[in-house]
Write a structure and sequence with these properties.
With 140 residues, the protein is of the alpha/beta class. 29% of the residues lie in helices and 20% in strands. It is built from five helices and five strands.
């Protein structure tokens, strides 16, 4: 069985996320999605999510391409996740191209093209939610 893993926040689940998950699943038999926890998003990525980790996890679990969802709590967990889950292929969007090449010692690394014209940041901006960061308060 060929296992594939990908990481993300998956806030405001949209067509770009679904395209990534579908294409990732096409690369193997079993897709593991690692969803960033609220604490990791806030403390490490300096991002505020609209949906909580538990809500985002449930949304991602409902996608038919996904076999397992686990939490992302640290930038450094990727190597241990690849080893623990016996991952064959690591997949990320091509906006991260080159950033995870260190994983090539452990598995295949694939960067997939992003879906043009859509992103969570763009959706939040279009809705007037902004791309909230740690330094700003959420809009009420």
């Amino acid at each position: 069985m060929k296992k594939v893993i990908t990481y993300g926040t998956f806030d405001l689940l949209h067509a770009g996320h679904i395209n990534l998950l579908r294409r990732a699943k096409e690369l193997g038999d079993y897709l593991i999605v690692v969803v960033s926890t609220d604490e990791f998003n806030w403390e490490q990525k300096h991002k505020k999510c609209y949906f909580s980790y538990e809500e985002r996890k449930k949304l991602v679990e409902a996608v038919r391409y996904v076999d397992l969802v686990i939490p992302e709590v640290s930038w450094d967990q990727k190597i241990s996740d690849v080893k623990e889950y016996h991952v064959d292929t690591f997949v990320m969007g091509d906006d991260w191209k080159g950033k995870f090449d260190f994983l090539k010692d452990y598995c295949e690394v694939v960067y997939l093209p992003r879906t043009e014209g859509i992103s969570t940041t763009k959706i939040k901006e279009d809705l007037g939610l902004g791309g909230q960061t740690k330094d700003e308060e959420p809009a009420e």
